[in-house]
Amino acid sequence: MKKFLRLLAAPLFVATAMVASLSLPANADAVDTDPEIAAQWQTAWDTYKFAEVTPPPPPESGRSRTTTSISVTIDGSAKDVFDAYSNINNHIGRAAFLKRVVTHKQFTDCDVRYINFTAIEDVPFEGTVVSLATHAQQRLHRDDLFYETDTWSEPNVVTHQKITFTKLSGGRTKVTERLTFEADTSLIDFVVTNGVASHQQTQTALKQAIESGVL
Questions:
Q1: What pLDDT does 30 receive?
Q2: pTM, to two decimals
Q3: What residues in the chain have per-residue pLDDT under 70?
Q4: Which of 177, 173, 103, 113 shows the shortest CA–CA distance to 143?
Q5: CB half-sphere exposure, 164, CA atoms < 13 A
Q6: For 55, phi and psi rounded to 5 degrees?
Q7: Whether 15 contacts 126, CB under 8 Å
Q8: Looking at residue 59, what is its pLDDT?
Q9: Residues with Cβ < 8 Å from 190, sequence gap 6 or more?
Q10: What DSSP line would sit under 139-195, residue for residue?
Q11: What is the annotated signal peptide range for this record (predicted)?
Q12: What is the pLDDT of residue 97?
């Protein structure tokens, strides 16, 4: 069986390549129930502790970490842009293959809004559709105009994201995504290149939707 790599909202050619490298189960077209997905989220959270910020992995670990950033300027007030951009449900139809979001828990602590969720993507592959899951926690700091999202997906790919919203003149907002990727060293270049590309694709689609008034 082949080894799998997937990334949230990857372009078609990337997603196809990742699915092709996956150990596909015999019932790849089976759909997990929301409680099953919630249990998977909890297992990933407990096992990989993907929201924790740890020192960079040492070379002998076989893991690597890379940080980069991308930005976009959107016509709109910072609060409005924040509300539209940070709503993961608004990414459906704008991030490639993202079909739905399963929200497991929401709560507020010290003015920070926490959302535990799983993003489900349906990726076409060799005449079938494979459902892929990315488990995540989002922390919204609306008063300070930034939010953080940590994700985990097979095979032990972790991302840490901090998205900031800076007020500009003329009622515009600069959105900057600081992206940290961690994966096996043999995969890190692929993960970074295609992870950045997928985030840029989603940025462009959100900008168009916000500026057109759709969001």
A1: 56
A2: 0.85
A3: 1-31
A4: 113
A5: 9
A6: -60, 155
A7: no
A8: 86
A9: 5
A10: EEEGGGTEEEEEEEETTTEEEEEEEEEEEEGGGEEEEEEEEEEEEETTTHHHHHHHH
A11: 1-28
A12: 81
